[in-house]
Each structure stands twice: as C-alpha cells, then as structure tokens.
Amino acid sequence: MKFLEIAGNLLSKAFEPIRRNASFFFFMYLLGIVVSYMELPDNRPDAEVYSHLWLEMFLDLYLVCLLLSFIPLKIRRWIRGFLYIIVYATTIADLFCWEKFQSTLNPSMLLLAGETDGREASEFVSSYITPDLLFSGVGIILLIALIQLLLSIAKILRHRFCKRFPLRFTIPQQLSMRLQSLAGLATIVLLSWGIASSAHNKKEMVQMFSLNTIGAVEHELTTQDCAQFYLPVYRLAFSVFSNGLAARQIDSLIVAKDKARVDSCSFRSPNIVLIIGESYGKHHSQQYGYFMPTTPRQIELQKSGRLIPFSDVVSPWNLTSFVFKNVFSLHVVGEKGEWCDYPLFPELFRKAGYHVSFITNQFLPKAKEAVYDFSGGFFLNHPELSEAMFDTRNDRLFRFDRGLIDDYDKNLKQQNKEHNLIIFHLIGQHVSYRQRYPSDRHRFSADDYTGRRADLSVKRRGILADYDNAVLYNDSIVDGIVKRFEDEEAIVIYMPDHGEECYEGNRGFICRNHSAAIDRDLARYEFEIPFWIYCSPKYIAKHPDIFKQIADAKDRRLMTDALPHTLLYLAGIHSKDYRPEYDVLSTKYNEKRPRLLKNKTDYDKL
C-alpha cells in the first residue's frame, strides 16, 4: 500500500506543471491546433497539418509549463501575460498574412515590414485592416482571446467570492489522488510519445539555427527531412533569424560597394544585354542535339552566323539564389572569402557610366515569397544596393515572360541611354511547367514521345511534353529580346541559371535533387547549360576582333560564376576587380581552373 501511495505521488508530480498553468496550457494548445487547421490551403483537398502537430505541441507546451512552475507565482503571472501577448499577436499576424496573401509569416514579409515607412504603413492599414477580418480566421483567434480573458476575470471573481463565502464541496482526497495519478500517467505517456515523434524535428531546428549564412539555410530547406516550423512563433523566430543572416551579408556587400573603383571605361560595347533563363538544361535544347524541335529560332540565329553557342558550360549551383550570388559577384568559386566580400558587377557598370536596367520576372519584393526567392533577391532588393546597381527596374511580375518584354517596350526602353547594360531575368521553365507557356502555344503532347520515351507512363510523357513546350516558348522569348537589339550596336549573352531534370534517362523524377551527392548524371542534367553570345550586324562590323575572340572561345571550358569578368572586358571597364584569368575571351584565361560544383565537386573529374 505504501508503494502504491509513493508511485501515485510520483505520477501526480508529472502532471503538476500543467495543473499550475492549466489555462495557459489549454488555450495555447487550442490556439496552435486552430491556426494549423485554418491555414490549410483551400485549393488542395489532400493538404494535411504537420503530422506530429498534436504530440510535439504537447511536448513543447509542457516544457514551457515546467519552466514556469519553478518561478514564484507573482512573477509567473507577469511572464505568462507577456507570453500571451507574444503568442496571440504572432498568431493573429500569421493568420492575417494567410487570409490576405495565402502565405504564413516568412522572412520576406518581415523584411518588407522593416522597410515600410509611415506613409506606406498607413496605406497598408487602410487597405487591409478592414471590418471583414472579424469574420475571418483572425476573428476566431480574437474570440478565443476574449473567452480566455473572460474566464480569467470569472476566476478572479470566483476566488474573491469563495474567500467571503467558502464552499463546502470538496473532492475526497483518495479520489483526488487517483485522478492526479491518472493524469500524471497520461502525461508521461504523451511526453514519451511526443519525444519519440518529435526528436528528429527538434534536431533539425537546432541544426537550422546553427547555420551561418542565408544560403546555407536555403540549402538546408531543400532536404526532405528539414525542420518544420509548425507554429507561428517558430515561423517568426525563423524569419528574424533569416533576416539577421541576410543583414550580415548586406553589411559586407555595402563595404565591398564602397571600396569598388573604376579606373577608366572605353565603352567598348555600347549595348550589352544579359538574358538569365531559368531551369534549362542543354539536354532539352535542339540546338545541342535534343531530338525534339525546341529551339528553332535560336538555330536560325545560329545559321545566320551571328549567334555562337558555347559547347562546355556549367552552372556553379543548381539553386537560382546561389547562382545569382555567384554570377553577380566578382568573386569566383575557389577564391578566398565569400561572394558578399566582393563588388557586384552592375555596381561597376554604373560607376563607369553605363545605364543599368534590371528586368526580372522573379526577384521583386513581395509578401508571398518562399525562402528561395528571399535568399536570391534580398541583396538585389536592398534599397542602398539596388540604387548602387540599377538605374531602371520593372515593378511588376507577369505570368508569362512575354509580359516582361511588353513591359520593357512600353515603360523601360525609352529610358535607355547611349551606353546600356540590360539584364533580363526570366521565369523560364520553372516548375510547374504547364504554367510557363500560354495554352495557345501548346505544341507537344504525350503521344509525340511514344516512340522515343516508351519507358515513361502517359502521365510522365505529358509532363515531359509540358517541359518541352516551355522550352519552345522560351525560345520565342529570347528570340524576341534579340530582335529588339538586332538593329543596334549590341551584344546579347544568354545563360540559364542552372539545368533541370525531366525524367532524364532512368532517373524517374523532375526538377532537381538538392540533397544528393554530385555524381556524373546529376552534374550532367542539373549543371550543364546552354550558353551563347549573339552579336548584331552593326556590332560585328565595328568589332570584328571581339567577334573572332568569341568564335575562338566557344569550346573553352567555362563556369558561369566567372561571367562578370567577361562582361567588364566587353564594356572596356578597367578596374582592379577585373581578372583576365577568369575572362573566357582573354588570352590569359585559365581554362584549367577547377569548376567546383556547389563549391565542392570538381566537374571535370567526374
């Protein structure tokens, strides 16, 4: 009997942290469950909440209550009040973002909020904070807060009433002990289950918050078992952490910007156009031997003798944001320091006197933005750095890349000067492929692949057809850009950011495999890219030497992280930051430089 009593007391101790903070535990748990289910997308009937939501949140709240139970009651009440404010405010903000933007709290939203001035904040409040919010999920959270507040007031009143008029009803001690023992036993079972089910996620969270760069965070998020920030307060913490990492790199970029110098500029090429594509491997280019007619216009330009395709070009990364950092920075993979320790090439163009335009269909600051776009665009959209790099920018995104060209024709072209660097950044063949071309541009279908890809199911052949239709549409876009400069003294360079897999060989998947070690097939399909340089008739007539240099360099090994040095040469910009050994057109070009994919795997040794 003594043993059972001791065991009962020990079990009841397990439940004690929850009992001491019962209202806090109940309402915070309710809040987490409600917001998780309310933020399931309406357009995805198969969407589910985080699989370990119920147990992991029980564990998390129990640990908070355990810590609170060690604090004296008077102080504990103030701490709980502070936690209520933080959790309710964060949950309301998270749900508000979901209601208005179909996105939960993320680093981009936090960045946009930090850069909002008083006028913009006022306009935002008048536009989005409207009475209808009370009838949305935000209203439900406010109702829960109101109920908790009323219950707290009722508890205080009941306590005062009982002091004046003591109640005689009490639960028998033996029954009370049994109930507390059962509650303690249930608590131990749920805690054990919660620890077992959430241990991996907790490990991944610790791993995430130990990373040193926003790029490393992004890469970690590409792994299949990455951390799940399943509650608004966790998403807020992650957003604050991500912005802190980005801010450190911004500081380094500003220091590099201020140190950048241009000694002189000959304006060798009056108009330089750089087209950066998206998710396009050379193995789906007819120009590089693909069996489907995906690049007829580029082939015609090549037949004209003015477009020269390069045969051996790879991307440094298979993630857009990493590519942009490496391509915009004068740092090359393998050099000391990081990409953010070096100037960005558009800064030197502006210092030299070029009018620089950046026309992007991806990297505009917006609330509904994944970490990948935040990681790739934070330095492009930073006010001080953007001003240092660009004279002209577009201010809207388009469903199809044709909209980007139309925007250039209507609003941006007239701002060009005598000497121009114009950067087009397309959305290209970014997944989902069917959304990357208009329905009236659908040429290929699943039946067209029956003979050559009989190994694929009808559904997969349809996806392959969608990808090739996107490649064909992209062909018309880059051709349209070239045509806008064919009567100018202009040079046009085209490079996708990285490759893309679409059921290549027997690999059986689409998009990219970020977490795998780089083997020969991965390098081939995800890093090998088309790359060409087009020179207009006027340009060839005035610069036959450069045109010959391009023709002579077409079979040289190249990784696109070195492209800025070639751009500086084409512009005639003389600066200490220019390195001829990285300029593919220079006689001093170091073709033997290791092409390190993801800064670790030598492509040429695979």
Structure commentary:
The protein folds into two domains: 2-200 and 213-221, no CATH class; 267-441 and 468-605, Alkaline Phosphatase, subunit A, CATH 3.40.720. The protein has 21 helices and 15 strands. The model has no long low-confidence stretch (mean pLDDT 90). A hairpin with a 7-residue loop joins strand 9 (501-502) and strand 10. The termini are far apart. With 606 residues, it is of the alpha/beta class. It has a seven-stranded mixed β-sheet with strand order 3-11-8-2-7-5-6, sandwiched between helices. Strands 1-13 form a two-stranded antiparallel ribbon. It is elongated, with a radius of gyration of 30 Å.
